[in-house]
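Sharing in case it's useful to others searching the archive later.

Someone asked me privately for the predicted structure of ABC transmembrane type-1 domain-containing protein, so I'm posting the question and my answer publicly. Question first, with the sequence:
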Amino acid sequence: MELSKEVGLITAKGREVTVEVVISVVVVVVAAVVVVVVVVVVVVVVVVEVVEVVVVVVVVVVAVVVVIVVVVVAVVVVVVVIVVAVVVVVVVVVVVVVVVVVVVVVVVVAAVIVEVVVVVATAAAAAAVVEVVVVIAIIVVVVVIVVVAVVVHSLRPSPARAVMNVHYKY
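And my answer, the predicted structure tokens:
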């Protein structure tokens, strides 16, 4: 390879490749890589969102089932205790104790459900932060591509410079 008198290179096969063509090819390759990276990031974000929705649905369904089971068990226990209390008056103290225990169990289960919902909400907030970071990264990548395109455009030889090169060539 030898450096030609004009802006460019002469390849081994005698074809001329200008600096502008080389820079354009590099910019296209970099832009393609950036597009692939952005697509991968978007796919990852979508997968995270889908997983997040599935987790929230599963947690809500489990919470509803647990609440229904606890309420049914509490009602059955209270009804059984009341029936026994009607039959045996002495059991009234036991009824009060069982009702208090059932109420405490219901309150504890409700507190656990609220804690699970808070944890899920915190995970959703973290996912929102990740989304904002991804959007900012995409904006930065687009700005970099625009800056590179402007620089490449400014490196192109102007027609006036080409005319001057012809006059001063010999």
